[in-house]
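User: I'll paste a sequence; please echo it back and then give the predicted structure.

Assistant: Echoing your sequence first, then the prediction.
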Amino acid sequence: MYFSIFLNDQFHFSCYNFVESIFTRRKPYIMKTTKKQQLLYSTILHKIYTKHTISRIDIARDTGITPATVSLLTAEMLSDDLIREVGEEIDLQDKVGRKKILLSVAPSHSYYVGAEISEKFFSFVLTDNTGILLQKETVSHDKNSPVDADFFVKSLAGFLEQTGYSDQVRGIGVAIPGHYTKDAPEKILTNNASWKNFNLRKIAECFDIPLYFSNNVHCMTRAESLFYTKPDVDNSNFLFFHIGRGIHCTHLYHDTLYGSQNLKIGEIGHMTVHPDGELCECGKHGCLQTYASETWLIKKARLLYHSSPDTYLHQLVNDEHEITLPVILNAYELGDTILVKLITLAVKSIATTITNLNMIIDCKRVFIHGELFNISSTVALLKKQLDFEPNLFMLPSKQELIIKPYSPYTGAIGAAAFAVYRTLLSKE
């Protein structure tokens, strides 16, 4: 029987350790020494993460891994306090009506630090392996000077020390405003000149703890999948739409980041929404980010500040450099005529983009994250615009729109989730 189990899932366990565990009644010990073994282990654990609670038999059904192997590997996870049994449910498909024991990821198994690098600030968080937030901090930097990797290292090291968990942290995730590839491990791949000389390799070399880099929106998407999934909610297929200094959209498809090897995938800010519109930095006209990104809205508001004596911006700030997106939204809510037009056009452009995406991408949810939707009026306007989505074939829309409350720590929490993914769930 045991031999057939191994054959079915191509296991090559150490015979000595396996036999020893049987005859000495020790906790099961499974040596994940091959890629196949690691793949099976990661697949099972990932299923438990994304389902929140699930039984062994349902894991076997969903993954195609034999029930016996699922039992062996979950026994190892239980012995390591990585998962726990959290209750029972009746198996309605079982004629006998046997109860299924449910498994869930155990909190406080291990600890992770997440950090986000942005033009505004550095943000840091300490979480456990389930995303429970233990500590957080933001560190401002000089917006008028190039961001320095040395300053980031100093800030991260300081945060790590003050947590009191530095000897327990298993991984550090860093969310970056661009892309990271092994072909250029020292660079942030982006068109933003602010990051041209920001050396990622220097950061990695300064810490003994494993450190992982990834795009900030990819990180946010991982957090949504691993940390925020609720029971009975299928969070395996969704879009995460981030509107910030730039605009990016990530698609999680069957628990996998779609197009992760193609860096252009997700650069939704450069989709054309107005063909005869403004010239974008990418060289095209009418890109989404020229109408809806924080950078461009601030740019236009500053021009308005100088050109219009009637704008409410004069009542809210003393200098153009004090204009931020919250200031713009404040003026918008006060009824500033031009800013009402700007914000309305921005929201309509985003709605148009989402509607277009819905015609080509099959997903169950669309998450929207950004300061632009920190107020109820812009949220209401977005929903109103999306109500005009074409009702083809007399079928109601099956997508759910979720406004993700903006937080300066969303990216850092996402980076911690990415560190969890790479440490516990990676199939590499």
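The first helix runs from residue 2 to 9. The domain at 2-105 is CATH 1.10.10.10 (Arc Repressor Mutant, subunit A).
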